[in-house]
Amino acid sequence: MVVKNVMNMNPGDGATSYANNSAVAIVLATLAETTANGHCEVVVDLYLSRFCSLTIKAVISETLPLVDETLKAMFSAANGRFHAKCLKLVDLGCSSGPNTLFIISYILNAIEDLCSNIINSANDHHLPEFEVFLNDLPDNDFDNLFKLLLNSNLFNGKKTRHCFLYGLPGSFYCRLFPSNTLHFAYSSYSLHWLSQVPEGMESRNKENICIARTSPPEVFEAYAKQYQRDFSTFLSHRGEEMIAGGRMVLTFRGRSVEDPSCTDDSAHLTLLSQTLLDMVAEEHIKKEDLHSFNIPLYPPCEQEVKTVIENEGSFHLDKLHGFRVRWDAHDNVVDDEDNPILKKHRSGKLVADCVRAFMEPMLAAHFGSSIVDELFGRI
Questions:
Q1: Structural domain of residue 45, as residue ranges?
Q2: What is an example of a Pfam family matching this protein (predicted)?
Q3: How many domains would you assign to the chain?
């Protein structure tokens, strides 16, 4: 299984598509406690599957001001003005749902407000032009993304907005831009995905599909080393591409403790693994197919993130912040407090749909598409 060929979300706008099952990522996007690069402010999402009391509304109201703070810091570091007539922005790992529209629109509006204040004080009447690059792997559903863009108001700012958008297929673990050309990079819920599954997992992690409590120590070590290589490569390439004083905002899954064997922050994937084992026992899936299936995902702890950034050296870490988000964070449409059974059932269905939206391409490529409906019907 070639990772770059299957690491895309479910395409289109159907019931199981990422576009219709991405509310968790919306929370993460609004949670981006933004960056100041020159400085690269990295936000680690300690995205735990345990329920917590943090609501979407509280998360959004708490964190969006931090996005503004970071953009203000970027302009302040430029001594009150940005010299570029055209600002280049990128969403790395944009996927194909409405989250990209939300965060890009928010960033553009925030920058325009900052530029307007500068323009008014300088008696200048020109806002910068924008080049916005939407990056993901080649099999991402860019068609659906640009259909959403054409039906959005992204091009309509508070003043006349000259915004040029480009699809940019390719891995963010490779070079994407010429040197010293990029002003602002954003990535939400993507950097926990590795460039590849560590070698040798077929024989060392047989009963698991990712790192789990029952994984042997050498599996944890192999995944950790792969993460260190990948994140270091990512930072090195962005360091070459970004201008001096540029900024990055990164949010991604993390774990709450340093020892990955002490907690299971991927309970949703553990449940998926157990369901696959049941299907092996019933001979719906071959045992060797399950043993050869591993997910290229690694949620780092805060210290791992700090260590890679410091050792790689391209960026200065301004802020590192962890927070918790529940898998069914968007389960606020109907109040079922008087019917806990119904509430639990609906919550489970929402979680299963979210997992299916990002796991189905990998599962279908490895096991065949015929098992997907039954698999998620059991979860």
A1: 3-12+21-378
A2: Methyltransf_7
A3: 1
Taking the model in full, what pTM does it have? 0.80
Report the pLDDT value the prediction gives residue 142, as an integer from 0 to 100. 93
Structure-token pair, residue 358: 């990002």
**Cα dihedral across residues 315, 3, 28, 306: positive or negative:** negative
Q: What is the mean pLDDT of each run of 10 residues along the chain (379 residues)?
A: 54 47 40 41 41 36 70 78 81 84 87 78 69 94 88 65 91 97 89 93 85 90 97 97 89 84 72 90 91 92 93 90 68 53 66 79 90 85
CATH (domain of 158): 3.40.50.150
Return the pLDDT at 165. Answer: 92
Predicted pLDDT at 128: 86
How far apart are the C-alpha atoms of 204 and 280, rounded to whole Å? 18
Cα dist from 79 to 58, 82, 89, 113, whole Å? 33, 8, 20, 17
- SS3 annotation, the chain: CCHHHHCCCCCCCCCCCCCCCCHHHHHHHHCCCCCCCCCEEEEEECCCCCCCCCCHHHHHHHHHHHHHHHHHHHHHCCCCCCCCCEEEEEEECCCCCCHHHHHHHHHHHHHHHHHHHHHHHHCCCCCCEEEEEEEECCCCCHHHHHHHHHCCCCCECCCECCEEEEEEECCCCCCCCCCCCEEEEEEECCCCECCCCCCCHHHHCCCCCCCCCCCCHHHHHHHHHHHHHHHHHHHHHHHHHEEEEEEEEEEEECCCCCCCCCCCCCHHHHHHHHHHHHHHHCCCCCHHHHHCCCCCECCCCHHHHHHHHHHHCCCCECCCCCCCCCCCCCCCCCCCCCCHHHHHHHHHHHHHHHHHHHHHHHHHHHHCHHHHHHHHHHC
Cα(334)–Cα(354) distance, integer angstroms: 18
